[in-house]
Amino acid sequence: MKVRRQENDSSRQRSSVSQDPIKELPSVTTVQSPPAPPTAIRPRVVARAGLYAVLAANAAVVAFLFAQAGFASNALIVLGRLAGLYGALLMAFQLLLVARLPWLDRRIGMDRLTSWHRWTGFGILWTLLAHAVFITFGYAQSSSMDPVNQLVDLAETVEGVLRAVVALTIIVVVGAVSGRYARRRLAYETWHFIHLYTYVAVVLAFTHQVAAGTTFTSSSAATAYWYAVWGVALGSVLVGRLVLPLWRNWRHQLRVTAVVPESDNVVSIHISGRDLDRMPARAGQFFLWRFLTRDRWWQANPFSLSAAPDGTRLRLTAKTAGDGTAALRHVKVGTRVFAEGPYGAFTAMHRTRPESLLVAGGVGVTPIRALLEDLEGHAVVIYRVAEDRDAVLYDELRELAHAKGAELHLVTGPAAPDRLAPSELARLVPDIAERDVFLCGPPGMTTTLLRTLRELGVPKQQIHHERFSLAG
């Protein structure tokens, strides 16, 4: 392994990880930006607490309205109705999580919201299964029918029950393909297509609740409450996933202005448009990009900004990972671009300390390079690659480090657990526990470094990382 180090004369001296001779870059004295004050209130904590509070408050309202409507004589039916109501509430909450509302996304991040969405989905699956089982067995107990015939009878005689059965079937299928075993074996396009049927299940479940829900119709307050819950959830999806992207793209009229190969398998695309100074993009964020050509308009790929937005242009840098990304170097200047975003919480908004450490692995350097441009205070940058030729944007990083008064370490060598082990990382950054750490790289590297940072005593609130699948 080899570590190449760059730092300015005013920077603190660092020891170096090395098994081969270290190549030192010329030192340059620069004027360092004044340290930024630590963030007093953590945006992610505020947003997360807000979501939990909203969910808890609505759970309490549901329980109150359920009790107010009265209880059935059969305990199984009571449990079934309550499970159904909480299943409906979780469905509405799940829609909010994937609505891509800017306020939530900037504070929590799409990757974490998507993870919460997944676990909420399993909660929906089990509560709605409980609803179906308890209701069926409860009515079967009252009518002396067997559960199968009772379910058929309910579907044939009670309005909305057949729609509920279809909705539950869809949710079971979606839950099955969302399991880890199935997800790893399905193509993303197949999984995504099946997942879209969740919206059909939501509509069917809502119409079932309107038609057959005793709590829904028990009072005008209950009816108004449930219409409000579904209206907010579905309205959030409509605004975040459709209205806002359409409006922003109509407003900014994005076009490709340059296509610059960075290496044999990495390309940068420069994009300009109207009023980009009014686009709320920050360094570290990403967009879902669609290049509106005949063969690519339907493909949306997540790529980070590889330079801080300057109000006149945007830039993404992508590595070839398939036919879609390989075709990017052939995109023509002038091509219209449809961009959804900006997304992600991997920004300076979440800083808690005046100094920072930025760690990049491979093409995960793209948001790191943009962040370095945006951050104030002393920064240390560690760029981990297998070979020197893999260090895309390294010349830009080196020039930027000179200008910002930052330290830059290029760590090369085959992937191995000890390349950035605790002892080596502590030698490079002795005061690591006093810094914010921004980390972006492949999953294996990210997992290893998160464990290393815990061993070095870096507080959890100072660690900021982006999933490589969304950032790269």
TrEMBL record:
Entry's Gene Ontology molecular function annotations: 2 iron, 2 sulfur cluster binding; flavin adenine dinucleotide binding; metal ion binding; oxidoreductase activity
Chief location: membrane
Membrane topology: Multi-pass membrane protein
Protein keywords: 2Fe-2S, FAD, Flavoprotein, Iron, Iron-sulfur, Membrane, Metal-binding, Oxidoreductase, Transmembrane, Transmembrane helix
One matching Pfam family: FAD_binding_8
PROSITE patterns per the UniProt record, alphabetical: FAD_FR
Subcellular location: Membrane
Cofactor: FAD
Residue ranges constituting the FAD-binding FR-type domain according to the UniProt record: 249-349
Gene Ontology cellular component list: membrane
Ranges annotated as spanning the membrane: 49-69, 75-98, 119-140, 160-182, 194-212, 224-244
Stretches with biased composition (Basic and acidic residues): 1-12
Annotated segments matching region Disordered: 1-37
Superkingdom assignment: Bacteria
Name the UniProt record assigns to this protein: Oxidoreductase
Lineage: Bacteria, Bacillati, Actinomycetota, Actinomycetes, Kitasatosporales
